[in-house]
UniProtKB/TrEMBL annotation:
Cellular localization per UniProt: Membrane
Topology in the lipid bilayer: Multi-pass membrane protein
Native organism: Panicum hallii var. hallii
Annotated protein name in UniProt: Nucleobase-ascorbate transporter 2
A GO CC annotation given for this chain: membrane
Record InterPro entries: MetI-like_sf, NCS2
Keywords, alphabetical: Membrane, Transmembrane, Transmembrane helix
Cited Pfam families: Xan_ur_permease
TM segment ranges: 39-58, 131-152, 158-176, 183-203, 218-240, 361-383, 389-408, 420-437
Entry keyword Transmembrane: yes
Domain of life: Eukaryota
Amino acid sequence: MAEVKPEDMVHHMPMDQLQGFEYCIDSNPSWGEGIALGFQHYILSLGTVVMIPTMLVPLMGGNDHDKAKVVQTLLFVTGIKTLLQTLFGTRLPTIMGGSYAYVVPILSIIRDPSLAQIADGHTRFLQTMRAIQGSLIVSSSIQIILGYSQLWAICSRFFSPLGMVPVIALVGLGLFERGFPVVGKCVEIGLPMLILFVALSQYLKHVHVRHVPFLERFSMLMCIVLVWVYAHILTASGAYKHTALVTQINCRTDLANLISSSQWISIPYPLQWGAPTFSADHAFGMMAAVLVSLIETTGAFKAAARLASATPPPAYVLSRGIGWQGIGTLLDGLFGTGTGSTVSVENVGLLGSTRVGSRRVIQISAGFMIFFSMLGKFGALFASIPFTIFAAIYCVMFGIVAAVGLSFMQFTNMNSMRNLFIIGVSLFLGLSIPEYFSRYSTSSRQGPAHTKAGWFNDYINTIFSSPPTVALFVSVLLDNTLDVRDAARDRGMPWWARFRTFRGDSRNEEFYTLPFNLNRFFPPS
């Protein structure tokens, strides 16, 4: 066998910015293309916007009209939060949507005996929503204080490229239950969607229309329309008439009842459900979800920066974004969205799938959210897309985000047994511990922590049900205590050091400076 010459070996140099993007964070496509891409992001965000109220509102005692109004409110507030984050927060192209991290403490509030004993369903829904609002308003102070005081920036000094690998990877991989397990509930719709999307967006991505890679950019929108029509034909032809209820819920296009339950024009407003109620137990439990969403958002911000072809956000910018996330959670509490705030991971993945990381596209998407949330029935039409279709797209989008996390290994020494140990253990425990908590909760109808202190139970069950949170605790602890004296280069710290301060790299000013010359009043540190 011929010996391989050194010059024949391919060396891939580590790159600060991901290459191959036609539009990065501060470059913009034409207005026509930008509007189409923004609408595509809006459609993708509807999966989470609809799923969370669909899951929680019936448990709260609400009817279809209540569910439609919560969906409208969540969509409206998501648009506002996204505009605030892209203008004044990290300025990364991220959609600030609803978070599943809040489900555990919200279920705890729903099961509170003082609320569960209310006989009238609508009254119970209103009282439960007000209790959720109160706990969100109080707990949002955690993110606001950590963000604007720059405490989170101080905490982030303990992060390294090595420590961030499992965190960012599990921001994507940790959502695996919302991927193929949901596709399998209606495989005749989900599988064609998955195959068609991969075929058009990857194998046919070089097809151009007027010099635009049309299929690469807009394949998701095309696939949703085609499969949605196909699903409606199956529904109208009676294919699901005699199937199980679970199959009908996941496959039929006429069971959401959002269109009939929505008003033509409705503008959400603060305190629309009444005055919030406050309870120390509920607020302490909700604070755990706020911490979890903060950690998940940190990982998603770093992934979004990579997929926007930007440099990693400096600690100051990251902390500023967390502060605005706290403002977003406060808005969730004031308007009554039924959940808290986090980065929409699927939309971060779409940046990579389309290779368009433009901030303007996301801002246009936020405009669509606000517009269609006020035009109730038009917004409800798009929100009636079967969730199975979104789950098929998630299989690709979450995978892209996970791969971005793994790409941070290029800045570390992966021939170091220390590094292999830290990444391997963090990834494994980050998946294994939340899976244990999930299976225990499913079989026992309560989390592993079930003491008489409800707030303590919510803390433990929420924190250890989040893969990125577990991964952060494990990886940062190991990375900062295990043979750390001579491991700076192996950890990737020489590369990372430039991006820890705002003025450490000249590109930071280009990507993260506030608009309207606001940096004069809020000088970066």
